[in-house]
Structure formats: C-alpha cells, structure tokens
Amino acid sequence: MARVVITGGAGAIGSNLVRALLRESAVEVVIVDDLSSGHEQNIPRDDRVLFLRGSILDQSVLDRAFNRPVERVFHLAANFANLSSIHEPEKDLLVNGMGTLKLLDLARRHLQFPEVAGDGRGRGVWSYRGSHEPGIHRGGDTISSESSRGSGGDGAPG
Ligand SMILES: NC(=O)c1ccc[n+]([C@@H]2O[C@H](COP(=O)([O-])OP(=O)(O)OC[C@H]3O[C@@H](n4cnc5c(N)ncnc54)[C@H](O)[C@@H]3O)[C@@H](O)[C@H]2O)c1
C-alpha cells in the first residue's frame, strides 16, 4: 500500500485531506502533527492512519515518518495566522521556514520523482523531472514557505 505523509494532518485542511485520501485510494497515511493548533479528534480512526505526535522540527519524528518508502508528501503543518508571526517571530520562522526546508529535503532524498506543486492547477509548479505524480504539496499557493511566493513553470523555481 502506498504511503503518504501529511504534516499538519490534525488541522483544518490536513484532516479533510486525510479523509479524502482514505475515501478515494488505498493509502497508508502518516500524520505528523504537534497539535499546537490542530486536534486529535480531527484525525479519522482508521487502521491505515499512523499518527506521529510531534514537531516537524524534531528529526526523530521525521525519521519515523520516512522510515519506509513514501510516495507523496503533503506539507500543511504551519504556524498559521499573521498575528503569530508578530507575537512569536522566532517560532514562526523556525516552523514555517526551517520546517518547510526540512520537508523539502526529505522529499528530495526519499521520493522517486521530487516535485513541488503550488496550487494543484499546474501554476507555480517547480518540478525536478517533469513528473506530476509523486511529490510534495504545500498548503495554498505557497511554494517554499508561508511568506514567500513563486510562479515558475516546470524546471524553474518561481
Ligand atoms: N485555512 C485556509 O483558509 C488556508 C488557505 C490557504 C492556505 N492555507 C495554508 O494551509 C496550511 C494549513 O492550514 P490550516 O487552515 O489547515 O491550518 P491549521 O492551523 O488548522 O493546521 C495546521 C496544523 O499544523 C500543525 N502544526 C503547527 N506547527 C507544527 C509543527 N511545528 N509540527 C507539526 N505540526 C504542526 C497544527 O497543530 C495544525 O494541526 C497553512 O500553511 C496555511 O497557510 C490555509
């Protein structure tokens, strides 16, 4: 069964994505979420779901998520809300910046055809090999972090 990693899978978008994936395909879903703004009750009870409670900044948690071949990564964990970047600038930068970088690096090392997709409609896509199959998907139309945007086509960062 294909393994999909979803960071922020206990959050608003992530938990709905988990449900949709379980409904539509035979996947094993690994959720990495520290429950800082998400809720455990958002996570569907299903044998195909593995919930790893912890931060995307914690390498031991990420090692567990990627200890088997992964087909796809959806990166939705975020310190989400503009105010948090004012009240907790360091945490915001670490989670949204370094956290995203860690996930991109893991995807590059673990996925067969790494690709970063922006809005799912083919815009803002940064593709290493032109494949539109396995890849890493970031929330909204953001490519590399909460605060940076891009609009490049295949093969070129935006
Ligand atoms: N909700 C929207 O309308 C919307 C629109 C466009 C883009 N987005 C983007 O989609 C993403 C998810 O949004 P959401 O609405 O689901 O937010 P959310 O706050 O509901 O979900 C984020 C999840 O990430 C988890 N998280 C936070 N820091 C973490 C960390 N260090 N390690 C592991 N997990 C961590 C939280 O516990 C939470 O479950 C964000 O990047 C957001 O900017 C959201």
Textual characterization of the structure:
It is built from four helices and seven strands. Helices cover 30% and strands 19% of the residues. Residues 119-133 and 140-158 have low confidence and may be disordered. It is α/β, with parallel strands linked by helices. It has a single domain (2-138), classed as NAD(P)-binding Rossmann-like Domain (Rossmann fold), CATH 3.40.50.720. The longest helix is centred in the middle third of the chain and has 22 residues, at 89-110. Strands 3-2-1-4-7-5-6 form a seven-stranded mixed beta sheet, with helices on both faces. It has helices at residues 12-24, 59-65, 82-87, 89-110, and strands at residues 2-7, 27-33, 49-53, 72-75, 115-117, 126-127, 136-138.
**How far is the N terminus from the C terminus?**
34 Å
Give the strand order of the largest sheet, numbering strands 1, 2, ... along the chain.
Answer: 3-2-1-4-7-5-6
Q: Report the portion of residues in β strands.
A: 15-25%
Please identify the top-level CATH class. Alpha Beta
Count of runs of 4 or more consecutive helical residues: 4
What can be said about the biggest beta sheet?
7 strands, mixed
- Element-by-element helix/strand order: EHEEHEHHEEE
Q: Give the low-confidence spans.
A: 119-133, 140-158
Question: How would you sum up this structure in a few lines?
Answer:
The chain is of the alpha/beta class and 158 residues long. The protein has helices spanning 12-24, 59-65, 82-87, 89-110; strands at 2-7, 27-33, 49-53, 72-75, 115-117, 126-127, 136-138. It starts with a strand and ends in a 20-residue tail after the last strand.
